[in-house]
Amino acid sequence: MSAALRRRAVLALPYAWLVLFFLVPFLISLKISVAESVIGIPPYSALIDTSGGSWRLDLSGESYRRLFTDDLYVVAYLNAVKFAGISTVFCLLLGYPLAYGIVRAPRRLRSLLLLLVILPFWTSFLIRVYAWIGLLKENGLINNVLLTLGLIHQPLILLNNAFAVYVGIVYSYLPFMVLPLYAQLEKLDPALLEAAADLGCRPWQAFLRVTLPLSMPGIAAGALLVFIPAVGEFVIPSLLGGPDTLMIGKVLWDEFFANHDWPMASAVAVAMLLLLLLPMGFIRRLLQGETA
Amino acid sequence: MSSPEPERPATAASYLRIEGVVKRFAPGAAAAVDGVSLDIAAGEFFALLGPSGCGKTTLLRLLAGFETPDAGRILIDRVDMAGVPPYRRPVNMMFQSYALFPHMTAAENVGFGLRQDGLPKAEIAVRVAAMLDLVKLGPLARRKPHQLSGGERQRVALARALAQEPKLVLLDEPLAALDRKLREETRFELVRIQQRVGVTFLMVTHDQEEAMSMASRIAVMSGGRIVQLGTPQQIYEEPASRFVADFIGAVNLFAGRVAGAAAGCLQVDSAEAGATLVVEHAPLPAGSEVAIAVRPEKITLAPAATAPNRLAGRVRGAAYRGEASTYEVELAGGKLLRVTLPNTGRRTEGYAAGQAVTLAFAPAAAVVLPP
User: Fold this and answer.
1) From the CA of B69, how many Å to the nearest CA of chain A?
2) Of B118, B173, B315, B328, whose Cβ has the fewest other Cβ atoms within 10 Å?
3) pLDDT tens-digit profile of B301-344?
4) With 0-12 CB in 10 A as exposed, 13-18 as middle and 19+ as buried, what is A157?
């Protein structure tokens, strides 16, 4: 095999993967989303109607019409974006100092600290979210400690509200923010900060003018890694949230499993994907402007 | 200096004064800088020369404020720098890696310090343009570091270090990252810029040729101490020790014992040379152990029959270098010498390996060193 052919073969592998496991499922979802919900197996109408001897493309915009007209979907989308967005900001505010601290730690401590960041992954995600119920509930650990210490006289309502959802998302996705930030900050040449100091920067000025701009790719990667899955998050709002924390992932689940309305569920999924392409495209453009 | 000495005024010309500076990186460890004192005048091009690990870069970092001395004082323009952070010192440094900000253009890099000083935008633009012109980088002002060649990056780093008009610029191996030809061209360029701007340059280098061709004075460092201080010619022609003689250029060393003295010369018995050598030097007690140092270019291979210090040998190898040829000559006792002869004519006949030769050097050409 020639070198060029080999190179192409190597490149073809990830493309094949993307086509097979991302593009094809997306197209299937797209196809179902423009069908009509019927009672039967499968529970949606065929895309191409062959009855009557002639082939007829049978497209229905019903699911999309409902998507944009029914308040439920619009509110759930906005809610999801709000929860994911605010959680991303909190992850950044917590993750940046954490990543910075790990980079600045003595070399032999660094791998241990990184391990501690990854350690929660060794336990099932579901169990960790359940654990938060034990911590946050009315007679849970946090309330009991605060009551015992006499800091509060009534248990705080910490569970089944927006607060609990934020705690859950920030807790679960923090490592996804810390790791890309760590990778970015670790590449930063310490001589650059010395150069900044030499040219008259106090440490905080050097941070703002050198460290922060140079960590933008890490911030962008971390923000996307947190924001994208958080928008579609289903487990955390289901377990920790309440009636006012309806997110689009929960709606999707309900359409699919409770209502058996596959076309509607697919339309929700397709719209969610398109919604996520926006921030990705935006950040991509931002980073290209940075390096060009 | 532990005793509260009255402020000794530095001499009028002395811009940088280093007094007994000591730096240890760990308590009890060998000192990286071990009691260095130095006076550098305004407008000087000074070089700290030494092998890696001799403490020269640490000394530079102490001056820039990135390290704190354990003892001693550093005075810049008569102001004690103790406790003065890097961002308040009137010095700028050119880093060995250049440390250019990768997210900024060449012009933004050069203007970084000026912006930090809060100068108006229009003035920054004028001064950045002037700096870039000085280093002949005007047309590349909008390029980012990764779009520049190594030599161009080096010049951006220099322009950045000069932009705030510091009185003292510290250069850490300024030419080390350049390839050979560019390095030689840039030497003259650096000296030209230094003279034009009238700034004091303190350069750290491990390259003796670089130090000698650029600096007006050199401090040779070894083991955290200054072992010799002088002009390039003094350092080369009158090395104070075997270390300096060996580190600066090539040298032939003969171990020997003083046999006598006469007419301003010493007679030195050298078993290595297989002869009694005559060397110009003030009298020393007979029996003293000494080392005789002779530079390769100060040895001739076609001596007159009456010449002193005639030694018989055989050419072991020859290296034609263009402007000169270097020969390795083996003496009867097995001692290897290096001899350099200029190729003054286009058809200068060289010596071939295996050829028997007689070499000699003048009594004034050799230096007597402690053993």
Assistant:
1) 17
2) B118
3) 877 778 888 888 899 988 888 888 899 999 888 889 999 988 88
4) middle
